[in-house]
Design brief:
The protein has 216 residues and is α+β, with helices and mostly antiparallel strands. 36% of the residues lie in helices and 22% in strands. α2 runs antiparallel to α6 (156-165) and α6 (156-165) runs parallel beside α9. It starts with 5 loop residues before the first helix and ends with a helix.
């Protein structure tokens, strides 16, 4: 097994006793599939499913947790009490040791420990539903694989789907780091992965700039 970056070792240890499904996603997932760290990361993204929030809340006892969903303003730093979350939702989390070194606000720099951004995902029966779009449903068994770093990791094409769509509608542009991640992973996608990614993006963002590259 390739050497696992220290921040991910900590996450693996943290989540090893979390019984519901979880997976590495975001920029670190790109690096996991490439087998090397390609850029700096402000935090670590992992995914859990809606309905498992209470289990997560209990698992991260002692952590600073702030949840964002349609009912909470993006700039809120109000502690999350474990309430069920409406989609789209994510949870910022700081380790207890980091809290001793950081101001009590979300935009403080990460100076100690590590920081998590936990994405709350949707499932229906045995399927993972992407972007709350029933036409983009994939069996759970196909969505997550163990990467060379030994962590359950969202498959490459799904990682890129989220990067293509999560911020595009809000920002009307591709974030630089998402473009960089796309270009890094694109040569490693199989034809099947590329076809799925192109079709999935077309359903929610038919004018997306990545569609041309995925059609080559």
């Amino acid at each position: 097994m390739a050497s696992v970056p220290a921040p991910l070792v900590s996450v693996a240890e943290l989540m090893s006793t979390f019984r519901p499904r979880w997976s590495l996603c975001g920029g670190w997932a790109v690096d996991a599939w490439l087998g090397r760290q390609t850029r700096e990361h402000a935090d670590i993204d992992i995914s859990v499913f809606q309905g498992d929030e209470q289990a997560l809340f209990e698992h991260l006892v002692g952590w600073q947790l702030v949840a964002h969903d349609p009912n909470v303003a993006d700039n809120s730093a109000e502690p999350w009490d474990g309430r069920p979350l409406d989609l789209p939702a994510h949870i910022h989390a700081r380790a207890p040791d980091a809290r001793r070194h950081l101001p009590d606000r979300l935009d403080a720099p990460v100076q100690a420990g590590f920081s998590l951004d936990i994405q709350v995902s949707e499932r229906s029966g045995g399927d993972w539903i992407f972007s709350r779009e029933p036409r983009i449903a994939v069996p759970l068994r196909r969505c997550v694989r163990q990467s060379g770093w030994g962590l359950p990791t969202l498959v490459a094409e799904v990682v890129l789907f989220y990067k293509a769509t999560a911020y595009f509608e809000m920002l009307k542009r591709i974030r630089r780091r998402d473009e960089r991640d796309f270009l890094a992973l694109l040569p490693h996608l199989t034809e099947k992965q590329s076809n799925w990614l192109r079709e999935a993006i077309s359903l929610v963002q038919p004018g997306h700039s990545w569609l041309t590259q995925l059609s080559l």
